[in-house]
Amino acid sequence: MALGAPYITTAVFKSQYLKLDTASDDDEIDDVLDEVSEEIESHTGRQFNDAGSATLRRFYREDAELVYVDDFHTTAGLVIATDEDDDGVAETTWSASDYQLEPLNGVVEGQPGWPFWTIRAVGDKRFPLARRATVHVTAQWGWAAVPPRVVQACKILAAETLKLRDAPLGVAGFGDFGVVRVRDNPKAANKLAPLVRTPVLAVAREDTGE
């Protein structure tokens, strides 16, 4: 399942893309949109929904002055702390003057609206190296708004998946054929290409309190 809600609703997909107004196939379309959204997340290495609240995740550093994290779009609720003695507890909380968030101003290649995914040390503090993930970041993960490219790719992949059946919306479930992969659909791949993230070596997990 996708990490958040599908990137287009069943109602919008049916009305704008399939030109349907019946509810008989809603359950199947729900499944397709959810699975296609998951495929987009896997292909891009990103989750585009807004988490809605700040939660803790932990990361390994890239080097003493740099750490790559999951996307977050606001500094509201942002807390950056480090585990200095590798005991799993973050003892040192960083102030805003200790770090710089990038991409600067949320702009990439002249286009605004991007989230932050890089934290750079610019003061006296450094990210410690240890066996554990020593950088603890509490943030509101995700994007402020789902990019139009993602919505379009979701439509394209869902429509192609549904067309794999012998008859329109009626014979076999999509599970019999599988979801169309981004790499197998040039149109979807081109839409998502600017959003694909280079795999991050940092290990992230959402804190469960365990």
Task: Explain what you see.
The protein has 210 residues and is of the alpha+beta class. The protein folds into two domains: 10-48 and 146-195; 55-145, no CATH class. It is 24% helix and 17% strand. It has helices spanning 10-18, 26-44, 148-163, 186-192; strands at residues 55-59, 66-72, 79-82, 92-93, 99-102, 116-121, 135-139, 205-206. The strands form two sheets. Strands 4-3-7-1-8 form a five-stranded antiparallel β-sheet, with no helix packed on it. Strands 2-6-5 form a three-stranded antiparallel β-sheet, with no helix packed on it. Helix 2 (26-44) packs across helix 3 (148-163) and helix 3 runs antiparallel to helix 4. The chain is elongated and about 60 Å long. The model is unreliable at 166-175 and 200-210 (pLDDT under 50).
Compute the number of helices.
Answer: 4
The total of beta strands comes to: 8
As residue ranges, the low-confidence spans are 166-175, 200-210
Spatial ordering of strands, largest sheet: 4-3-7-1-8
The largest sheet, given as strand count, sense and whether it forms a barrel, is: 5 strands, antiparallel
Q: What Rg is obtained from the alpha carbons, in whole angstroms? A: 20 Å
Please, what is the average pLDDT? 86
Structural class: alpha+beta
Separation, N- and C-terminal Cα atoms? 23 Å
Helical residue percent band: 10-25%
Global geometry: elongated
Structure, briefly:
By secondary structure, the chain is α+β, with helices and mostly antiparallel strands. It has two domains: 10-48 and 146-195; 55-145, no CATH class.
